[in-house]
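Quick one, probably user error.
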């Protein structure tokens, strides 16, 4: 078995090296080939990479501008006591992938004003996680209200 394998391997190598010697010197038999380091191909690849990077930077800049726009709209709606609009704009801003403690505070406060205390607490916790002191104080305020309500339930008739 080993002898057959070695014989076949030897014949293949002789055949391939014979082909290389015959066609190596005959210009008419050479096929056009591309070098691995072909400058035109490499330049085309580098140009495609740089264009892709430029497009990504442009998309990221647009996303960031849109984020700031939604933040401003959420702040305006919050200032005008339009709670549903504030929630809508905060949601749109957060969908872009940027996060801010003040956005979570605005949405939490809007939920609190509408009576959705569970959602408000959740947003205040997230705002506290992003180092928003107003969200931390609001969370403490809601927790103390809950504690008072629980105490009142136990001591009332």
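Nope, works fine. Designed sequence:
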């Amino acid at each position: 078995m080993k002898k057959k394998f070695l014989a076949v391997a030897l014949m293949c190598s002789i055949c391939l090296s014979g082909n290389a010697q015959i066609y190596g010197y005959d210009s008419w038999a050479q096929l056009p080939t591309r070098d691995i380091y072909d400058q035109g191909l490499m330049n085309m690849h580098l140009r495609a990479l740089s264009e892709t990077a430029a497009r990504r930077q442009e998309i990221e800049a647009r996303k960031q501008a849109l984020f700031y726009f939604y933040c401003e709209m959420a702040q305006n709606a919050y200032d005008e006591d339009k709670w549903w609009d504030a929630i809508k704009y905060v949601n749109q801003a957060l969908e872009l992938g940027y996060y801010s403690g003040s956005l979570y505070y605005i949405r939490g406060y809007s939920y609190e004003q509408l009576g959705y205390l569970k959602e408000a607490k959740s947003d205040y916790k997230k705002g506290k996680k992003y180092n928003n002191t107003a969200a931390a104080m609001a969370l403490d305020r809601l927790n103390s209200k809950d504690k008072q309500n629980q105490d009142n339930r136990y001591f009332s008739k």
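Residues 18-23 have pLDDT under 50 and may be disordered.
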